[in-house]
Design a protein that fits this description.
CATH topology of the largest domain: Rossmann fold
Number of domains: 2
Order of helices and strands: HEEEHEHEHEHEHHEHEEEHEHEHEEH
CATH architecture of the largest domain: 3-Layer(aba) Sandwich
CATH class of the largest domain: Alpha Beta
Number of helices: 12
Radius of gyration: 22 Å
Bound molecules: magnesium ion
Number of strands: 15
Structural class: alpha/beta
Pfam families: Hydrolase_6, Hydrolase_like
GO cellular component, one term: mitochondrion
InterPro entries: CDP-alcohol_PTase-I, HAD-like_sf, HAD-SF_hydro_IIA, HAD-SF_hydro_IIA_CECR5, HAD_sf
CATH superfamily of the largest domain: HAD superfamily/HAD-like
Length: about 375
């Protein structure tokens, strides 16, 4: 297959000096010197459908008996379900064995905040099972905004007109009494995944945030607010990009700043934040591999630093910008199956190379890294 590479001039002409072929590594040991981070939406999947021959491409990263051969993770700004559940879903869709450790979602860094809010009442917002996600991370008093809003009569004046709301699912979620909710202020709100009912969520969040964590009370200090990502748009099943969490953030912020005395304070995670790439690197360097003697007993161990880390993404302002900001040893590969659909490279955030599909990306990587291919 002929790759339609668009090399970024200087970087492509000067490939990594220290890039080593697979067979040259570690005195005959067979540890790869590279790792790969794949974005999901617009690279691996569109909606729930695999694209770009992603199942076939990923199979090349496993041994014949289905064990992981080359370290790779999914690095997505999406989410809404626990990593363990998402790993099972991806394994079925892509027909390879994905471990929970290989799934890094936009909200995965929230687990670092457990010590701060472990026993505090926190609200989780978004599609899927946001409360289950936070509970799995170790937060003990988490409530979804769906359940929380039910405790406040008439908090959403448009609620009676939302005839599309046919059922309320509180699966895997702890239930609370009215006394629980009225006796404690919300200490922080987490936008775990894309909000579903924007009008209600904006209303209830404005109430929580400007009333010191308890809607209907006097105006008070804003509790902390966290977003799992800040994507303005992303590629879903519809042909044109859809509004993402960044669009929701802009909407909430615009309204809050008009009705509140002080501007909205918040923290956003997800790509292109450099800490996401640092975390991805550390996971890739400790991922248990079939060929790794350190993991023969089933436990991952930190190996030598990887020489090259590939970021395969479809969104220049998220995936490629992030990899560029993270710097070496990250190497960015832009696909044309998602947000980016141009013929050449992206002007503002050019990738190291541009390919049509994830299959071409994997082909490029394996040819470059392995003398004899995979
Ligand atoms: Mg994407």
């Amino acid at each position: 297959m002929v790759l339609r590479h668009v090399y970024r001039s200087i970087r492509a002409k000067a490939p990594y000096k220290h890039s080593r072929s697979f067979s040259q590594l570690h005195s005959g040991s067979r540890w790869p010197s590279f790792g790969i981070a794949f974005d999901i939406d617009g690279v691996i999947l569109r909606g729930n459908e695999p694209i770009g021959n992603s199942p076939q491409a990923l199979k090349r990263l496993y041994t014949d008996c289905g064990k992981l051969k080359f370290p790779f993770i999914f690095l997505t700004n999406g989410g809404g379900v626990p990593e363990s559940k998402r790993a099972i879903e991806l394994s079925k869709m892509l027909e390879v064995n994905i471990q929970p450790l290989q799934v890094v979602q936009g909200h995965s860094p929230f687990k670092q905040l457990v010590n701060r809010y472990e026993n505090d009442l926190i609200v989780a917002v978004g599609k899927g099972e946001p409360a289950a996600v936070m509970s799995e991370y170790g937060f003990k008093k988490v409530i979804s905004i769906d359940q929380y809003a039910l405790f406040f009569d008439n908090i959403d004046p448009l609620g009676p007109y939302k005839k599309w709301v046919t059922k309320m699912t509180l699966d895997n979620e702890r239930t609370y009494s009215k006394e629980d909710i009225y006796s404690e202020r919300v200490k922080s709100a987490f936008i775990v995944s894309d909000p579903v009912d924007w009008s209600r969520d904006i209303q209830v969040l404005c109430d929580i945030l400007r009333c010191g964590g308890l809607p209907g009370r006097e105006y008070s200090h804003q509790p902390p607010l966290y977003f799992a990502s800040d994507d303005l748009e992303y590629q879903a099943a519809f042909p044109i990009e859809r509004l993402g969490m960044g669009a929701f953030r802009i909407t909430l912020e615009s309204i809050f700043n008009r009705i509140s005395y002080s501007p909205l304070k918040y923290t956003s995670y997800g790509k292109p934040n450099p800490t996401v790439f640092e975390n991805a690197r550390s996971i890739l360097e400790s991922l248990p591999l079939d060929c790794d003697p350190h993991t023969a007993n089933g436990h991952g161990a930190s190996r030598q630093p990887l020489d090259t880390l590939y970021m395969v993404g479809d969104n220049p302002v998220v995936d490629i910008k992030g990899a560029c900001q993270a710097g070496r040893p990250w190497f960015s590969i832009l696909t044309r199956t998602g947000v980016f659909k141009g013929k050449g490279n992206h002007e503002q955030f050019p990738a190291d190379i541009v390919v049509d599909t994830v299959e071409e990306a994997v082909d490029y990587i394996l040819k470059k890294e392995c003398r004899n291919g995979s």
